[in-house]
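Example record for the data management plan.
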Amino acid sequence: MYNRTLWEAIPSENFIYKLEGRTKLIILGLVALLAVLIDSPRTLLILLWLSLFLHVVTRPSAARWRVIMMLLLLTMWGTMVSQALFYNQEPRTEIACLITPATPIVGMMTGGLYLYREGLEHGAEQALRSGIMLLSGLLVCWNTDARQLLRVLIYWKLPYEFVFMLITSLRFLPVILNETDTVLTAQRLRGGEGRRSLSPIRLIRLTFRTLLPILARSMRRAETLAMSVESRGFGRSVHPVDLGNWPSGEKSCCWLGVLGVLGIMALKVAYSLQYNGIAYFPSLSNFYDYMQWWL
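Corresponding structural encoding:
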């Protein structure tokens, strides 16, 4: 069976776990904004390595490292390959031909399938963004109790139904994985072949046979949960939440982060104005070079 602690927060002595919930969510939002705002692969790579370093500091288990590596490889590899195949901007340089236009049916319908260098480069940038957000999200989820996130979001006056749905989805992930393992174990006990001994075609068939019982069991759990929360007056009255004092040091760091992101946004706007020939300020020529290299 899957270990629930693989996906849930474990009390720890690392400094990230000890941070206040508001601090974690604000920093997570700022990192997501930076990943979207920054276009330089160098800076995005630095942010990715920084996110990995923070995971090292928290000393996750070997199982969690396997999850990180698997998700990173699948996400980044899939993004780069898809962009390299379907890049439609000009100019574009072919680096490999997978299906020639002369190939019957497929080649005639698609006009050939090629890998493009510009698409690979663009996909690498998007993959870095996805990796940064993935690592940051896992870092917060694995080092924050779900109840703490719930209290913070309610304190920020978000709709209770939305907050409950978000936290429940986080709690349901290990449950779904447990259901998957239960279904696969039941199939093996009934004489089914092991997953490692299956051919690709049989593995696909096993996947489709597994999805239906998993979906049915998950729906029953969701129905039970819905009846339970409804019987307890879900959403009828939400009591105010008092989070206590926000540590001054963490609050100051958050304000500095917000000001820093706003400054980067202003620099990006200034660079966009000069790049499109709308407004150019000679006194900012050094900043333009800096922004082209790092932002």
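Summary line stored alongside the record: The mean pLDDT is 77.
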